[in-house]
Automatic annotation (TrEMBL):
Designated name of the protein: GLTP protein
Gene name in the database record: Gltp
GO cellular component, one term: membrane
Domain Glycolipid transfer protein: 5-73
Function, as annotated: Accelerates the intermembrane transfer of various glycolipids. Catalyzes the transfer of various glycosphingolipids between membranes but does not catalyze the transfer of phospholipids. May be involved in the intracellular translocation of glucosylceramides.
Species, as recorded: Geococcyx californianus
Gene Ontology molecular-function annotations: ceramide 1-phosphate binding; ceramide 1-phosphate transfer activity
Keywords from the UniProt entry: Cytoplasm, Lipid transport, Repeat, Transport
Compartments, record wording: Cytoplasm
Highest taxon of source: Eukaryota
InterPro entries in alphabetical order: GLTP_sf, Glycolipid_transfer_prot_dom
Family per similarity comment: Belongs to the GLTP family.
């Protein structure tokens, strides 16, 4: 459950970064910047040096932002602004739930911080 929770946090930070318009100005359709931010804020502290390097290399296999948004829309062609609005709506509902779970873990002293 803890690992699923961490993965969900990664996805939420990634989507938040995309919806906030953060991007690499030289390559605006790539989501490497967003994925690295999400990794730094959610998973990196749990990974040792080797896994950190593997993740850094794996960001080059990520889909384009346009392909990710199309996949989130189940293959439909939708304007980017509409997809971003749907992401905002999802985040407004999902983030408080994730925050409550983190708070519960903290109160119960159940958050493990060992590195893989």
């Amino acid at each position: 459950l803890r690992y699923s929770h961490r993965g969900l946090k990664f996805m939420l930070v990634l989507l938040q970064s995309i919806s906030d318009g953060e991007r690499d100005e030289e390559h605006p359709n790539l989501i490497r910047v967003n994925a690295m931010k999400a990794y730094e804020l959610s998973l990196k502290k749990y990974h040792g040096w080797m896994l950190q390097k593997v993740f850094t290399g794996s960001v080059y296999a990520l889909p384009y932002k346009s392909d990710l948004l199309k996949a989130l829309e189940k293959g439909k062609e939708v304007k980017e602004e509409e997809s971003i609005e749907k992401i905002h709506q999802f985040l407004s509902r999902a983030t408080p739930i994730l925050d409550a779970i983190y708070e519960m873990y903290t109160k119960m002293n159940a958050e493990l911080s060992y590195k893989a």
